[in-house]
Every structure is written in structure tokens, then in C-alpha cells.
Amino acid sequence: MTKTTATAHTNIALIKYWGKKDAQLNLPTTSSLSLTLDEFYTTTTVENSNIDQLIINGQMADPTRVHHFLDALRAELGDFSPLLISSQNYVPTAAGLASSASAFAALTAATTRHLGLDLPLTTLSRLARRGSGSATRSLFGGFALWQAGTNDQTSYANALPTPNIPISLLVVEISGLQKKISSSEGMLRAMTSPNYEQWVHDANWQITAMQAALQASDLTRVGQLAEDNALAMHALNLSAKDRRFTYFTPQTIQVLDLVKKLRQACLIAYATLDAGPNVKIITHSDQAAYIQAQLHQELPKLRVTIAHPGPGVSYEQ
């Protein structure tokens, strides 16, 4: 093949990944559970080149991280020629909307297909983890469960079959700017919190409870668990012994307050946040448009997108 193109969508973790027991292999301290979204995605094309190069949205970019990832693939799959990688990112980069997840999932899929390999999704998931932990889950449509595992071979995601749940996420974009503290750096700091072991303990039972809530199509319970897990994760950042920090902005707090008011008005509305200021609101699909209108009324300058469960990785024919 002269060129190979793959598309992968972002995912939002309902039970978070926040901390590594092995930074080189991106092995997480906890398992995590996510929902892939239809509205945000990355399309990546690879072709042979004289050196590894990276183009993002038409602009040359620093290829260092991608080069290290491709070398990890070469070590496992056998040596292959340098690649020119052209990536169109339909999601703000490094702003807490899982751009690295869709990017490395798409790159893994495009590269292995370019090499003539037809690998199972679980293998692609394990390989993508080396580029970005969250990419492990973006190979799958709908809900995915990333088992923490104990080593490189056992840490990967699977699709999580669930009933047809009428779930929507409203993505409230407070900032599309690159965050000042990367996810990797944020995790290192968070793990110094005196509350970190408790967070790991809680995440372990929350992931079991979340699977039960999804099987029961209990959106209220899904939202409660996701919000509790996310806010506890961000509390770790504030209680870190080593350079405490927060991704929240004043507008983040405004949106969180509005979510609470929406619940008091008997709507299904629960917040989750990844490593950034942007808020995702979990709700019933029938209530999504109304909540979007309320957000526009209260905070008219913010972009609010209604997202639904999205597809798994796909290839351009």
C-alpha cells in the first residue's frame, strides 16, 4: 500500500485512569471504563518516508513522541521503514477532550494495516496503550473496559456489551488551548496525594458498580458514579504533596454549579471531567437538547456539543 488511512474517535472515561504503575509501558494503577463519542475523532494517514515525520491539521509538528511510539511498534512487530504521518484532528488538542486517545488509536490502526497486518482489536488496544493510555479504549465503539492488567501482555481494553442505553453527553468546551500541565505530569503529581490509595480503592468498586448500572440501564446511577469518580480524581490534584494544581477555571465551577441546579430541577445531569477544564454532562438523550439550551442561556459564549455513543476504529477503502 502507498498510503493507509484510519479513523478513531475520542472516548470519555466514566471511571477514570489517573496514575501509572509503570510509566514506560503506560500500565495504569486502576482499570477504567469509557464511552466512545461520535462527534470528536482523528483521521490519520501513513505512508513511507525517509524519516518519521508528523503533520497535524496541515502543520508540521514535533515528531518526538510519535517516533518513540513507532520505535516501540518496531521492537514488537519487526523493523519497518520511517513513516510520514498526516493527522486531521477534529477535537481540541491537549485540552482534556481525549485527543491523544483518538490520535494514537488511529495511528496504531493505520500503521499495522499499512504493514499488511490484520490484528485483533485487543492486540491493537494493547499496542496503542504505548502511545497513550486512553488510546487503549478508542479502538472500540460504545462502552469499553480497560483492564489494568499486571504487565504489557495483560493490559488492554475490550468492548463492553450493554443494552441500548439512551445516553448522551453534552461536551462543554471552556477552553481549546493546550493545557499547561500534561496528563502524564498531572498523574505523577496526583499520586503524591495522601488520598491516592483511597481513590484507587474506591475506583475498584466503582468500576464494578458502573458495569452493573449500565446493564440495568440506570442512567442516574451511571451519572452518580461517574461524577463521584471524576470529582475525587480532581481532588487528588488539589491535595498533591508535590506541587498541587487544578485544571479547573472559574467557568468550570460555573458549569458544575449549573449541573447541580439542573439535577435539583429533576433532570438527569451529572458532570465528568478529564485532564482539562472542559466539562462533559451525562444525561438522557431526551433531555440533552433542553440542557443544551439552558447552558446557552446561562453561558452563551461557551460551545456546547451534544455527543452520542460513537463507532470503533474504521479504515478508508
Q: Quick recap of the structure?
A:
Belongs to the diphosphomevalonate decarboxylase family. The chain is an alpha+beta fold and 317 residues long.
Label the overall shape. globular
- Structurally, the number of domains stands at 2
CATH topology tier name of the largest domain: Ribosomal Protein S5, domain 2
Largest sheet: 8 strands, mixed
Proportion of residues in helical segments: 25-40%
Beta-strand residue fraction? 25-35%
The CATH class assignment of the largest domain is: Alpha Beta
EC number: 4.1.1.33
Enzyme class: lyase
Protein name: diphosphomevalonate decarboxylase
GO biological process, one term: isopentenyl diphosphate biosynthetic process, mevalonate pathway
Topology:
Layout: E1 3-15, E2 20-22, E3 27-28, E4 32-48, E5 53-56, E6 59-61, H1 64-77, E7 83-90, H2 99-114, H3 121-128, E8 143-147, E9 156-159, E10 167-173, H4 183-190, H5 196-215, H6 219-238, H7 250-264, E11 270-272, E12 279-284, H8 288-298, E13 303-307, E14 314-315
Parallel strand pairs: 5-7
Antiparallel strand pairs: 1-4, 1-14, 2-3, 4-7, 4-8, 5-6, 8-9, 10-12, 10-13, 11-12
Report on the architecture of this protein.
The protein has two domains: 161 residues, Ribosomal Protein S5, domain 2; 141 residues, Alpha-Beta Plaits. Helices cover 35% and strands 26% of the residues. The mean pLDDT is 94. Strand 11 and strand 12 form a beta hairpin. The longest helix has 20 residues. It contains eight helices and 14 strands. Helix 2 crosses helix 3, helix 4 packs across helix 6 and helix 5 packs antiparallel against helix 6. It is an alpha+beta fold. The chain is globular, with a radius of gyration of 19 Å. Strands 1, 4, 5, 6, 7, 8, 9 and 14 form an eight-stranded mixed sheet that branches. Strands 11-12-10-13 form a four-stranded antiparallel sheet. It has a two-stranded antiparallel sheet with strand order 2-3. It holds the Pfam family MDD_C. This is diphosphomevalonate decarboxylase.
